Amino acid sequence: MTGISVDKARRYATISREAAHEGVVNLNPIQRGGILPEEARRALLEFGDGYSMCDFCLKGRIDMIDKPPVKRFLSDLASFLGMDVVRLTNRCRDALLAALMGLRRARGGSALVVDSNAHYSTYLAAEALGLEVIEVPNTGYPEFKVKLEAYKDALEAAEERTGQPALAALLTHADPYYGNLNDARAVAEICREHGVPFILNAAYTAGVMPLNGREVGADVLVSSGQKSWSSSGPLGILAMTEEVAEQVLVRSAHFPNKELYLLGCPALGVGLATLMASFPHVVERVTHWPEEVEKARWLAGQLERIEGVRQLGVRPKEHHVICFETPGFHEIAKKHKRKGFFLYEELKARGIVGIQPGLTRRVKLSTYGLTREELARVAEAFHKVAAKYGLDVR
Amino acid sequence: MTGISVDKARRYATISREAAHEGVVNLNPIQRGGILPEEARRALLEFGDGYSMCDFCLKGRIDMIDKPPVKRFLSDLASFLGMDVVRLTNRCRDALLAALMGLRRARGGSALVVDSNAHYSTYLAAEALGLEVIEVPNTGYPEFKVKLEAYKDALEAAEERTGQPALAALLTHADPYYGNLNDARAVAEICREHGVPFILNAAYTAGVMPLNGREVGADVLVSSGQKSWSSSGPLGILAMTEEVAEQVLVRSAHFPNKELYLLGCPALGVGLATLMASFPHVVERVTHWPEEVEKARWLAGQLERIEGVRQLGVRPKEHHVICFETPGFHEIAKKHKRKGFFLYEELKARGIVGIQPGLTRRVKLSTYGLTREELARVAEAFHKVAAKYGLDVR
User: Fold this and answer.
1) Distance CA B198, CA B190 (A)
2) Could B357 and A210 be called an inter-chain contact, meaning their C-beta atoms sit closer than 8 Å?
3) CA–CA separation, A214 vs A198, rounded Å?
4) How far is CA A283 from CA A206, A294, B192, in A?
5) CB contact under 8 A, A17 and B120
6) Does the beta-carbon distance from B234 to A267 stay under 8 Å?
7) Which of A345, B14, B33, B191 is most buried by a 10 A CB count?
8) Distance from B394 to chain A by nearest Cα, in Å?
């Protein structure tokens, strides 16, 4: 009757996660801001069942639940972000998609202006909606710095190409490729002059560093629970000004209690429970941002001691995501029997994981939340691997 | 700088879930098929960090990860469902939305035929895409049985109204209001005759009862991880025939590795980990479906012993979701100082939760996975509350 036996299925019951074992340092840029503190791990078990948040739902809306205090939490989260209204979605990109759908309905517009370091999901959201993407260029190698002043030209190009103002302009606050931190205020100002809504993608910034959406002039701020809020996710944060919220949170014609572009309640058991439980941890940790930046700079300096290694992106680092070009390692990989995997495996043997297995031309990592002792271990491991294969370490 | 202090945030660190305490019987229809077995609770902790499944991602696609064995699991899941291809999404409704977007691009069509007992999210997905909804009627009170043969008229009406064949026809396999189980084969046949793709919403069936999509003739089968697969979710299952998969899983023009209508990788840490860990439990439990139906019938009979109580929907029960009209309780609520909340509170005092707080005109519950002892406690609690307020119990 079914195509698989219980016996065959049984192998999935015991899946485990090697990379999380004690003593392993994980440098993965998508993971560093998502690691759960102890209180969130307790919430995992308490709210593990998928609809656990819905036990005392009286209004058919997760954002209106008082017990546990979801409604109050969303209001506190909005305050923390300096925005008026917050809704949760299942991913940051779904928050963006909902915002674009709502803005399109309210204002029209068929072009989206984005920075050229935007995350791939920004392009996909635009493509899924049939929007034209107008890119704001960056300075290219080696800084790849987005030319913020060029938002003006891009907005004008959008209007010329589509015959109407752009639907919105999006800036990736810190990009996922080089970890360049952008000045959101500068873009917000250009958008305001052009009367175009400004969307800030804060997937790599809100939740790990101080960010006040109102102060930087964001009309919409989206972020990622599992990336930067120590939520088990999947969870997107959609924060808006009152004005944009009215446009985005339209109700269904058939079910007037339900918010159309969210497709009703996002089902947010454990993702929401861990976001809530981690919130004090997050509110506290953003105050340590200067120290996090300092740690990133320290490790960048340590890795640049290796022959040929150069930190790409803006210098000095202003963010925890760091990209290095590593031509020395790439030359070794060409001759190594494990090819590009040698670097990953050499580091793993030294208790360091999280760089992309197989890649040696460039190495991307994050220092967020690591102790100085752990960072020293990371630097030492890279130095030893370099020396083992004959690269100079100054 | 931020609008909330660490001290104020601290209250969220200790959120807890009263309704899950030991000894409490939870009858909530959305929850019964989602309760995690022990092996899934272990997976919760092991994969609690949001990107925990991505440690060994080599191809930038969660469905292609070999370690943990996500790729093999999705293939086994497809076999289990009798379908060719499975992808995961963040909710069942997102699976539906992706399918509709892909089918619309491949085939055209601007109307969606749906049964009149469809879940609200089906209507929202159609509305968000600007589709016209053509409803297939049901028999009304007291059975509310969908008139399956009327799919023919609805498909023809769709073609007449929009000048082209319907985009698709959707049947809610077991509906969330009355727990009526529908004969999917009958609708599949009508759809095939009309050359219209058939989507089966199996949110309340796949994962709790045997279901082979190929045998019933589904082109698309969607289901809900947290509703019926003991996954912590949020998680939707999108299962397709090979032919439909080619239409739905189109690649992005900008990022040809990414599936456009999924917006790339759904972020599926703990939702996916618990789906996998629970899979043997699920594969095993569907073989006990006849016993589950028998338990539903038993409780329906027990509650009908109370004056005025009548089971709505198809009789005898063929599914674990049961809706009762309860006019006796509704009369009591009118005079009770706690109004409609009295019933919820009386049951809760007896260790029974999960009926909608505040409602007494109708009561909806699920018997899925409860032991006979627990069901006896439920029956006794209802009987005692009825007797306490002067209702006859035969």
Assistant:
1) 9
2) no
3) 11
4) 10, 20, 56
5) no
6) yes
7) B33
8) 31
Q: Is the dihedral of CA A4, A8, A13, A14 positive or negative?
A: negative
Q: Using a CB–CB cutoff of 8 Å, tell me whether A150 touches chain B.
A: no
**Kind of pairing between the strands at A321-325 and A310-311:** antiparallel
**CA dist list (Å): A60 to A51, A235, B219, B241:** 12, 19, 31, 34
In angstroms, the CA B269 to CA B284 distance is 24
Mean pLDDT by runs of 10 across the 394 residues of chain B is 83 85 90 97 95 90 95 97 98 98 97 98 98 98 98 98 98 98 98 98 98 98 98 97 98 96 91 97 98 98 98 98 98 97 96 94 98 98 98 97
The predicted complex's ipTM stands at 0.96
- The rounded distance, in Å, linking the Cα atoms of A46 and A40 is 10
Answer whether A123 sits within 8 Å of B34, measured CB to CB. no
**pTM of the entire structure?**
0.97
A chain contacts of residue B18, beta-carbon cutoff 8 Å: 55
Around Cβ A229, how many Cβ atoms within 10 Å? 27
Beta strands at A111-115 and A132-136: parallel, antiparallel or unpaired: parallel
Tokens representing residue B250 in the block? 């189109």
* Nearest CA-CA partner of B2 in A174, A279, A369, A234: A279
Q: Do B274 and A48 touch (CB under 8 A)?
A: yes
Instruction: Write the pLDDT tens digit of every residue in A12-34.
Output: 999 988 776 778 999 999 999 99
Contact B232, A269 (CB under 8 A): yes
pLDDT tens column, A82-108: 999 999 999 999 999 999 999 999 999
Chain B interface disruption, residue of A263, A285, A338, most B CBs within 10 A = A263
What's the Cα-to-Cα distance from B78 to each of A6, A35, B102, B214, rounded to whole Å? 15, 32, 19, 10
Question: Identity (one letter) of the amino acid at B236?
Answer: G
B225 vs A30: CB contact, 8 Å cut-off? no
Bridge partners, residue A363, by sequence: A324
CB contact at 8 A, B111 and B282:
no
